[in-house]
Amino acid sequence: MKPGPALAAALLVALPLCATGAEKRAFTVADLYAVKGVATPAIAPDGRSVVFAVTSTDLPAIRRQTNLWRVDALGAGARALTLSDKSDTSPAFSPDGSVLAFLSTRAGDPQVFFLPRAARRRRRPTSRAASAPSSSRRTASGFC
Questions:
Q1: CA–CA distance, 82 with 107 (Å, rounded to integer)
Q2: For the structural domain made of 3-15+23-143, what CATH number should be given?
Q3: Which of 34-38, 98-102, 114-118 has the lowest mean pLDDT?
């Protein structure tokens, strides 16, 4: 499967839609901060979905947050996997696709969290700072 269509669908989910017939006006700093950033797509091993990080800015609060979203390979069914005022980034699937690992600052320093596909609760198996899930070793059975 080519990642192009899935990535394009992910980008479309994150971009605000323009209203038709809106009056013309100058682009402002607030408009710039209203654009959501999309990064670090991870394609599921079965090729049926893509998980990616979406960064948004709360300009009045002067705060940025990043959450993970999943969309199917055809661009439908987009849904948030994480909803936090912290930063959830760098998604990576286990080889069998049953677990999604990601970095999160919800516990302070960035930590690796696991989100089993069948579970609703995230678990944090680490207690020290990490730079990216790629620094975690993977085994045939998944992450260790």
A1: 14
A2: 2.120.10.30
A3: 114-118
- φ/ψ region of 43 (left if φ > 0, alpha if ψ in -120 to 50, else beta) reads beta
Residue ranges of E strands in the chain: 37-43, 49-58, 63-72, 79-80, 88-93, 99-104, 111-116, 138-139, 142-143
Closest Cα partner for 105 from 142, 55, 60? 55
| Confidence band of 84 (pLDDT split at 50, 70, 90) | confident
Query: Tokens in use for 10?
Result: 């992910």
User: Both ends of the chain: CA-CA distance in Å?
Assistant: 28
